[in-house]
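Structure, all two chains, one model.
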Amino acid sequence: MKRRDFIKTGIGAGVGCGFVPMQSLFAQQGVAKTLYDKIWEAHEVSFLGGITSVLHVDRMMLPDSGPGSIRQLLDAGETIKNPELVWAVADHQVSTSPERYTNRSLNLGDVANEFPEMKEELAAMGIQAFGIDDPEQGIQHVVGPETGLTLPGMLMVAGDSHTCTHGAVGCVSWGGETARNVLLTGTVIRERARNLRVNYTGTLGPWVRGKDMILHTIGALGADAGNRCAVEYAGPLVRSLGIEGRMTICNLSIEMGAATGMVAPDDTTYEYVANREYAPRGELWDQALAYWRGLPTDDAAAFYRDETIDMTNVEPQVTWGISPEHVIGISDRVPAPDDAPFEKRDAWRRALEYTGLTPGDTIADTPVDEVFIGSCAESRISDLRAAAEVVRGRRVAPNVLAWVIAGSQPVKRQAEAEGLDRIFTNAGFDWREPGCSKCYGSNGDLVAQGKRCVSNSNRNYVGRQGIDAVTHLVSTPMAAAAAIAGRIVDVRRLMAGEIA
Amino acid sequence: MAEQAALGSGPQFLRQEGIAAPLMMDNVDTDIISPIGKPPNPGATPETRAFEPIRFFADGREKPDFILNQEAFRRASIILAGKNFGTGSSRSVAVSRPLAGGINVVIAESFGPLFYDNSVRLGLLAVPLDGETIEQIAQWSFANPGQSILVDLQRQVIEVPGMETIEFRVEPRVREKLLNGYSVREELSRLEGEIDEFAQAYRQGQPWIYQK
């Protein structure tokens, strides 16, 4: 069973090198489609009945264990399908200590050694592998778009759940895939998601950013709102954001329960992608661009669900519970379980018990033990600049342990060139090496047992950052402000000089 | 009934008869089901590592209010839950640890997408059902401690003594995979020709993807 005849007729039909802009193919079909539908159908190898298909993969992104997985397969005499579509980067298990380059045992597993050992062999197969010694190394969801390994229109898969981040450049991306299956077949089996569009309207107030947009959205729609859906973030507010802000929004799609999240490509996207290390150039760029321009959702396309989120008057957001949907504005008070819809009362009670907050108290002024700035949600240069603006000329409060971790080596180099590292270290922050770190600590970077951490990452689940540790999710500048004040505060008030 | 022999080398699921434990919460996330990167709880055994943060206190004592710590539900093989079960990360231990503890079925209103994918891969049956029906099964389970229900994938039904037969639907591909015990690779190897043909045409159509 095949449902991709439209693309087949395009390929090899004698037009140029077999390239036909997708829009003309859809126009021929006369069917209005969403961005997600177009990308899905362009990759559909075989329809398996129901809503399930086999899809061709454009990029398989491997984590720390990547070289090891490939070694195992090669040793077993297996053949890697489409190796030139595979890349790997060490992020989850790498130490973030500056000593990690000399004391290699600080890195967990074999990540410090496998990348250099296999680098040439992998390169000969067309596989880029970025270990801690490579100038591209960083968190995979920062590295992909930054290097141009992620491009619009792609189907990008990986193991890691936050692979949905890459959708910000107009591709379809998801985690949860097993390296072995993808490496051996070049395909995945997936169930097709329904189309959910979130339209952002209104204006963003001062110090309100992409992170606040998505946290507010999850609060308004619920942590299961994206169930079996592919979310397209749309509307003028999304258009006004840079690619980095869009990545933050797409990053938390999985926290909304969605299969993936994406933003249609536009001139901002093409400007961002152009001239990246692995982006196409010259004639191929022109071909790619013509194709990408056909990807955005057609005006007449129907959505399973269409939601509008008005950002006017939305404040910087902060979570008070153990799900990203437990979120309020910084001026709000901690809610009481009785305020919850009936079916959520038990969950709110459990959440408050875990986070130790009292209903009716302001969320502001909650004391903080640790602050974490890093993670695939927000650790790109625009995020670090926003944090530095808050921190400049101020000091981290006594007894607060505060870390800043650039999302990648290029981000770190750029930040250092701008002197941001000095702003952070002069204030008392630790400035560490790129990796996933304290977002959930699989490299050993954990929040101390039972401590309270304000974090610009994406999950505030029970025990996520450490045993009995409490996480408050916020934007990067809000995390910086909490480090300075030693408690959760409104970054707008801090910057206005209203908070000492 | 004659057992259907597995045709593949993957996990097979035909039916499960067993105790259904109500864990009637929404958004049971993967960090609750299977924390990673943290030392195991001192009270946990290989069979009780699932749900560690709500199963044990930090010192290893059991939390008495957790359903699988209650005598009637210790040997449960089916979990009943609310919305968005398994929301969170792609970790396969979110499925393999419950499986190691004898949990072979989760019946919930909806599932986190990556938990769901792992369940199909690893052979735990994730059954989506409406909340009202799940609530009825939960009430029955509390009223009939130690009694079993039957979840039959062949017929796509749940049988609860004294209740009308409950029908459910899973994707045709999921049903075929689990009944036959195919691995994902076996499912895909049958399509190898089609996959290669597609990849060749695709390479010509979108050459820039290969120019990295």
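Chain A touches chain B through 88 residues (CB under 8 Å).
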